[in-house]
Design brief:
- With about 230 residues, the protein is of the alpha/beta class.
- It has helices at about 30-45, 85-100, 115-125, 160-170, 175-190, 195-210, 210-220, and strands spanning about 5-10, 15-20, 50-55, 60, 105-110, 110-115, 125-130, 135, 150-155.
- A six-stranded mixed beta sheet has the order 1-2-3-5-7-9, sandwiched between helices.
- The chain is globular, with a radius of gyration of 19 Å.
- Helix 5 (about 175-190) runs antiparallel to helix 6 (about 195-210).
- The chain has two domains: about 5-170, 2-enoyl-CoA Hydratase, Chain A, domain 1; about 175-220, Orthogonal Bundle (Lyase 2-enoyl-coa Hydratase, Chain  A, domain 2).
- It has seven helices and nine strands, in the order ββαββαββαβββαααα.
- About 35% of the residues are buried.
């Protein structure tokens, strides 16, 4: 049997998906998109998952689209390639799936993230990258942490420990509230100030009626660590 194109590992309340085409720097193919979508849907459906980490095997995170893949390869010499079809078929669903995940999503960028691979990483809620990682676009991207594109850049030898610690911490936080914050930030880009404040009121009203709010207040009053369960 062929080795999976997406490896799945679960530890505590953290699930890790590893893109697994190291010989091609984990570049996207239609087949890998299929396995990744299944893995994302499974993580979304599993209420034991409270944080999702996505990384790459080998020395790269994801080198973008594999141009030899039938999804984008020319059908014959000189024939036009419908790249838009690949976007509609694979990348749009991937983007919408990531942004609708019911848990925080961490991109652990362990090497090169190029083209669609860089865009994929930046879709995630938090990006942690090794100091040796690079984000490449046609126009170039430099100093990704300095210009605010990613959350944190860490030395290669402590990268795994930093990602594990971050994911474990996120898994203990109020998951529903974290996701609602992401959704509100996304929606606010299309709203004026008054509408954005009304949206915040609606979000706060919904979260305030949920068990995690009561748990947070109770834990604060009792001076103990909270145990959040909403998702």
């Amino acid at each position: 049997m062929a080795e999976p194109l997406v490896l799945v590992r679960h530890s505590g309340n953290v699930r890790t998906l590893t893109l697994n085409r190291p010989q091609a720097l984990n570049s996207f193919t239609g087949a890998m998109h299929g396995e990744l979508r299944e893995a994302l849907d499974a993580a979304a459906a599993d209420r034991n998952v409270r944080c999702l980490v996505i990384t790459g095997s080998g020395r790269g995170f994801c080198a973008g689209q594999d141009l030899a893949d039938p999804a984008v390869a020319p059908k014959s010499e000189g024939a036009p390639t419908d790249v838009g079809n690949a976007i509609e078929r694979f990348y749009k669903p991937l983007a919408l799936r990531i942004r609708s995940m019911p848990v925080p999503v961490v991109a652990a960028v362990n090497g090169v993230a190029a083209g669609a691979g860089a865009n994929f990483a930046l879709l995630c809620d938090i990006v942690v990258a090794t100091r040796s990682a690079s984000f490449l676009q046609a126009l170039g991207v430099g100093g990704a942490e300095r210009i605010g594109l990613i959350w944190k850049c860490v030395d290669d030898d402590v990268f795994i420990f930093e990602v594990d610690a971050l994911a474990a911490r996120l898994a203990t936080l109020p998951t529903k509230a974290l996701v609602a914050t992401r959704q509100a930030l996304d929606a606010a880009q299309q709203l004026d100030l008054a509408a954005a404040l009304s949206l915040e009121a609606d979000v706060q009203r919904t979260l305030g009626a949920a068990p995690d709010f009561a748990e947070g207040v109770a834990a604060f009053m009792a001076k103990r660590a909270p145990t959040f369960t909403d998702r």
